[in-house]
Amino acid sequence: MEQNKLNDNKLNTKLVNQKKLVKIAVIGAAGYTGFELLKILNRHKFANIVLVTSNQNESKLISEVFPSLLDFKNNQKFLSTESKSFPINILLKSNVVFLCLPPFESMNFIKNYLLDYSGLIIDIGSDFRLKDYKDYKYWYQNDHILKDSLKDFVYGIPELYFKDIKGSKKISNPGCYPTSVILALAPIIKENKLFEIIDINIDAKSGVSGAGKKLKEMYLFCSVNENFLAYSPLMHRHIGEIEQEIKRISGKSYKVSFTPHLLPINRGIFSTIYCKIKFLEAVEAKKTITTSEEYLNTDKNVLELKNYIDLQFKSFYKNSNFVRFLGEEIPQIKDVVNTNYCYIGYSFDIRTNILKIFSVIDNLLKGASGQAVQNMNIALGLTEHEGLII
Asked: Annotated active-site positions, please?
């Protein structure tokens, strides 16, 4: 298995070593994530976009649909995947295919066009994030038509799975909410020697673009403006993804409580993760203390806890290009909008034994297109931040 990955990486990096442009197809390029992806690829030194699709905007130039891209370096017409003249030969000759499609559509596109594709597939949609087809059916209430392919897709959070992404040929881009949550939790659920987390409650808020381009009443201006509400408080699809990765990182199964909210802003996510903690018995025994409350009854021990949390985050993300740990400073959405960054801060409530972790990202970049290009760069052996503003 490891040798196969090495061979794949040699094939991927051959393009870069020969200083050739990477031929890229973007399927579903007229949505919010597609637009952001086009902007990033337009400034990417190695990107050569050879195909863009949009069934609703067929035959229109990129610059017609997105006037802000009048100077797009490879301006071309959107093509329809439903057209009889759809150029399958161009698709199959590309080096990378980005799928910016709604749920259930990526697997259909792959089944129809990409089963024998030899290039890199990056699914920005949700079809290949869950690795167990039973979990997929449970959370999406739908059968997966390519269930045997689920295991072939690497879950693309570069800060956690860099080695798996490097040289891979199939990548599932994480969801926006899970990205903000998993990056915030990973340092304290992996090999924590001071305390264990006994309960996780997630309160997350997103700008309207997180819903995609939908003509639905709750997303209309008069519904969103000067308003704030929770939605899908039960069985949100991202729960399965969050629980899957928590188990993978920590080795423990959690049932998390997750409640998303709609913010009256265009873009950005603010996640607050409430972790009820219990100090490990070995630590308590060493200090001849029997309860967490007693352990935290001195300023010295509280300081020890905070130093431990600081060390966990700083060491975990010391080599990260796009994750910034702020300590006890609370991050803000405005600091990460239009970037591929994730900012993380925390507070510890001594009275309730709850560790509160705050995480902010741009849902369209680190939560979607930015992270997708970050994954492509790693898979192809390019500089990780190529095309991304840092």
From this structure: 176
